[in-house]
């Protein structure tokens, strides 16, 4: 179940990384909207236009209704407030959608496509471009994601086209905090994503190149889905503001237990394309130590394990004097195939330095472009 709690206190302690001998039972925390002092968001600080149209295509596993019209035989409608499929098979309806438009309230329309139709559509509209699939975090309404991607795409240029993956999550209201039990809601969301990939994206091996960007809790959903989509390969993967334990890729954590959860870092690494048995691209980990949402998340559930989106990977707590870097902490299979980027060094001013939703800021757009070529 989702539990609503009014935010009464935003200051989170900077926790030391204390790891148990097995994978901790994590509780997901996601602050739904960036608040003025604790990190301005370029996405959510500006109003979303009414009757928003999205000129590209999306992937969604939100339940939908078939509403054909004359000249639009594959027209569908869906609601941004749909929390996910029930037990009626709705979850297998992972589809590509074009011509997405808000038609009032939180209702959207679009035209569904098969994977073959999506490839033809993408190729015709974006000849020579590479898709950048984007997995948003919890408590993101479709209009927030689509509006943000619209703005970001204008800055990305024509070589890399963002395709948002809109998966079912509950809407939120400003000023609310959801405590999401990973033993209940997150596995369900991961199953949604695995089905979305499995039913749709795994057929996109037709795309010669593709990259993946995950933000916030989207990283956790990827973590839980990665083992189920191992035949899907990306050129590069960006983990931005990741609400994952910082040592997920560490050799010690991976080998300390036979718990399947301890192997999930390897599952993520193995989503990279390989040549001669080695990954071709990299996993790029973008972090900000002052991230207010991840600082709060660190202490939820009593685990006190710092987040990857705070500390990066291949790092350790020196206890006195901050954090140090040691690539040898990483599992040998992962070592040298990750790269940290300290976004915190680029966030300035009271309204930015604690930011969590910085994924589409100008310096981040430039960073993606520099790595994608």
Automatic annotation (TrEMBL):
SUPFAM superfamilies: alpha/beta-Hydrolases
Gene3D superfamilies to which the protein is assigned, alphabetical: alpha/beta hydrolase
Pfam families assigned: DUF900 (PF05990)
Identification of the protein by name: Alpha/beta hydrolase
Species whose genome carries this gene: Chaetoceros tenuissimus
């Amino acid at each position: 179940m989702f539990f609503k709690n009014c935010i009464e206190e935003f200051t989170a302690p900077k926790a030391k990384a204390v790891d148990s001998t097995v994978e901790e039972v994590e509780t997901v925390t996601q602050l739904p909207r960036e608040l003025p002092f604790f990190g301005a968001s370029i996405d959510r600080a500006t109003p979303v236009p009414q009757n928003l149209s999205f000129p590209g295509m999306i992937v969604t596993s939100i339940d939908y209704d078939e509403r054909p019209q004359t000249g639009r035989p594959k027209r569908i409608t869906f609601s941004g407030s749909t929390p996910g499929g029930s037990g009626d098979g709705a979850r297998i309806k992972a589809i590509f959608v074009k011509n997405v438009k808000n038609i009032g309230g939180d209702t959207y329309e679009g035209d569904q496509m098969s994977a073959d139709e999506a490839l033809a559509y993408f190729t015709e509209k974006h000849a020579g471009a590479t898709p950048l699939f984007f997995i948003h975090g919890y408590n993101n309404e479709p209009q927030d994601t689509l509006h943000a991607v619209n703005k970001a795409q204008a800055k990305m240029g024509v070589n890399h086209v963002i395709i948002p993956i809109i998966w079912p999550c509950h809407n939120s209201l400003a000023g609310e905090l959801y405590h999401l039990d990973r033993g209940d809601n997150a596995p369900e969301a991961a199953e949604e994503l695995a089905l979305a990939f499995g039913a749709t994206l795994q057929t996109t091996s037709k795309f010669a190149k593709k990259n993946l960007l995950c933000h916030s809790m989207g990283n956790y959903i990827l973590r839980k889905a990665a083992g189920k989509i191992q035949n899907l390969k990306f050129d590069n993967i960006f983990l931005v503001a990741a609400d994952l334990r910082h040592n997920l890729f560490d050799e010690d954590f991976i080998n300390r237990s036979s718990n399947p959860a301890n192997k999930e870092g390897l599952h993520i690494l193995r989503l990279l394309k390989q040549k001669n048995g080695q990954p071709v691209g990299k996993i790029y980990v973008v972090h900000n130590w002052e991230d207010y949402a991840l600082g709060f998340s660190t202490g939820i559930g009593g685990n006190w394990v710092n987040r990857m989106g705070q500390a990066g990977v291949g790092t350790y707590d020196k206890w006195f004097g901050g954090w140090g870097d040691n690539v040898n902490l990483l599992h040998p299979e992962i070592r040298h195939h990750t790269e940290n980027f300290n976004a915190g060094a680029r966030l300035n001013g009271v309204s930015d330095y604690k930011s969590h939703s910085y994924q589409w800021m100008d310096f981040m757009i430039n960073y993606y472009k520099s790595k994608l070529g």
